[in-house]
Amino acid sequence: MHEGDDRRLLESGVAVRSRPGEATCGDAAVVNSTPDQALVAAIDGLGHGAEAARAARIAAEIVREFAAETPVSLVRRCHDALKQTRGVAMSLASFSGSERRITWLGIGNVEGRLVSSDSSLPSLSGSLPLLRGVPGHELPPMRPTTHDARHGDVLMFVTDGISAAFADSLDVSGSPQEIANRLAVEHWKGTDDALVVVARYLGEGR
Asked: Between 3.30.420.40, 3.40.47.10, 3.20.20.100, 3.60.40.10, what CATH number should domain 10-201 receive?
């Protein structure tokens, strides 16, 4: 469920692991890029198995269809469509090439990190504040946060099948796909569905 980017504003990579014994994965990713804006989403259907996959699939389809809208609008659309499902946890990031900004929002437990490409700054330039709630069942007041985006900055989203230790050493060498694969290999818990989404911002002085 990964929609490929056009590599104009972002390059991206996705790694997925299914819970042992399950035929389907309840996690889904969407990456949508245009010349001036891009959207990245990581979605975790609650639980595992077919019902979790169904909830994640519905949310991914909505995000893909309305990718030009704001993260808040997208979460609200997903909430309305998911009321007859288990619900999801989801994190979204919207990149603006003209404003050189990233706006992100997380509901539930899909972790997000933004790693700066500027060696003169701390390597970790942002951690996504996560709000309590379950799109499809209950939404909190939503307040997205914003960061400056610099050429080469790397966004990471991981679902809860990835150990929190992934953030202890954020190695962003290699392509986004190589980074995603490395995180999935090194930090998958092995007991749950897992998703890693990595996107490198190519705006500003490409």
From this structure: 3.60.40.10
